[in-house]
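#struct-pred
JK: can someone run the complex with magnesium ion? inputs below
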Amino acid sequence: MRGDERPVLKSMGGISEEFLDQLEAQVGDVAHPIGHNFLKHDLEHLIAKRPRLGQIIQAPIDTLWLNPLAFPRNPYHHLVKHYHDGRLATGHVNDPELDARLVFEVLANQLDAFAKLADVAPDELAAYHYLTTRMERAGGFDAVFSYLRGKCCPSYDEAAAAITRLLDGRACGLRVEQTLRRLSSPQNGWPMAYALSWITVAGGDSVMPPWVRAQFREASLIVRHLRDTSCKDPACNWCSEQNDPVRALERWFGFPSFRAKPVDPEGRPLQERIVDEAMSGNSLLGILPTGTGKSLCYQVPALSRFDKIGALTVVISPLVALMADQVQGMERAGISCSVTINGMMSMPERQDALDKVRMGDAGILIISPEQLRSTSIRSVLAQREVGLWAIDEAHCVSKWGHDFRPDYRYLGRFIREFSEDQPPAPVLCLTATAKPEVVADIIEHFQSKAGVELLPLDGGASRTNLAFEVRPTNKASKLSDVMNVLDALLPAEGRSGAVVYCSSRKETERVAEFLKSQGVDAAHFHAGMSADDKQVVQEQFRVGELRVIAATNAFGMGIDKPDIRLVVHADIPGSLENYLQEAGRAGRDREDAHCVLLFAADDVERQFRLTASSRLARHEIGAILKALRRIDERTKKDRQGRCNFW
Ligand code: ADP
Ligand code: MG
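RT: done, structure tokens with the ligand placed:
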């Protein structure tokens, strides 16, 4: 289709020699053939059929290529809208003639957008002019920018000066110099143009279009090189501001420093070391005691990387309660770019969250490993550059851990497959479990399945602010023993709290009733309650309206209450690991707290019975198999019966 009055040339099915003759005649005197995705698609096919077209078409314009430069803020949106409107108006699903007509309109819009840039950011246009005209057949783009700027293409020196001014305060000075030196190579022109245009809108919600990342891989590598590769020179403004862990912590969370303890083998705060390693692109396994701030270890690098290169951090977490908690925690700190997707969400909620990831509003996506099997999750992830994989509660990978989750064992393979032929983004594993066989298992998993080497950084599991104590009790005195411990060790005033762990749901109710009768603000908590009730109890406990919770081990994971002053075990826990997890919820604020275990010999017997009853005996498996066979035979007979009948 020409811009003048000449009739449109159409071919119905197949391209004949005769059609190619007509096409040659039609484009013969056209200065700039244009198309959307024209250069790497239609033009290549046409030249394959008729090589002479390659000589005739010397100065084409591809509106797809120009689009991210003209509309750096979500270029994708703009085009989808265009097409959408056009299609809706005609009701045609596939209409090449309309598509061709739209290209004129798209180019006109792009020229408008660039014209505005000419006034406010002439350096940007000068840079694009130079960068888009390095390759062969660049006459069309030269024409666009010459027309807009009223000047011919800048020299290398002029372009380099314009780019240096543009990137001042937006990238590392040393990296800018290095990048400029590589611009003489013709293939680097367009990627550098895309890198620049993305950087002009960085820090917002814009993602580089997936087709740019696929077709011009260098573009995102250049962004990373410019903004996310510290030169370690204290005199560099960019790197000392943007690539420094402590500055990043201050900026996102307002904390003046990382936790002083635990420390790494060199005596540096472990949180800081982990964040530094992750920001430098290294993979590691961080072992920190519960309550020492593992979330921050991935949140800081995630936010920093989102800001610098627009990349997404995928956080794997085992429990919905933990996910919601992390999102809320960040919201309280004024950070709104984290999103969770889980099985508890309604369809519209899920859709909304998926859109946020696709369009680039989300910098952190928190999901359970099962979600990685979902096709909708996979397809939105494919739209984004993943800059970091954070595996929270990483001991779930290991069969030797106390919380083995089979789906965690799928992570390594997923990460490798997702990364295709590129090295995977850094993997940051976090856990409070330091058991040697668990640590070895986690490291082996990511090594063999994803080819990722995790550096283990162990902060030890010691919690010096917790005082442990065992007191004798018996069936008859248990309730009053609990009450005595509370009286002695839970401050009467304030909003701090205590948890009383019991081994059965009924017992939690009995204990809570008793405490209430004694005038304590108490409630019970167990897995038999509705989600709403659980939510209410947790929230009241968090803010201090409830001071004591009598709970089964269903309570705890995901409770972000720093000022639990006392954990009482009214019954002994199921295992030593459970005990550490549960007691470890006390004193997360690093202030003194007490952990009191009430011990009765009868209880040990009871626990053994409970443990035994949760195991399957051989004869039970046999009985289940038998029952399954019976069902199978019955359905077979049913089917036969039906066949005979018909
Ligand atoms: P973990 O996952 O290791 O059990 P969390 O990540 O839930 O611990 O953190 C526990 C609490 O510590 C949170 O309330 C968090 O805001 C706080 N915290 C973490 N790091 C710091 C820090 N450097 N300064 C102050 N508070 C911190
Ligand atoms: Mg945690």
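RT: quick notes.
Residues 17-227 form one domain.
Residues 255, 258-259, 271, 288, 290-296, 560, 562, 588 surround adenosine-5'-diphosphate (ligand 1) (CB under 6 Å).
JK: thanks, will look after standup
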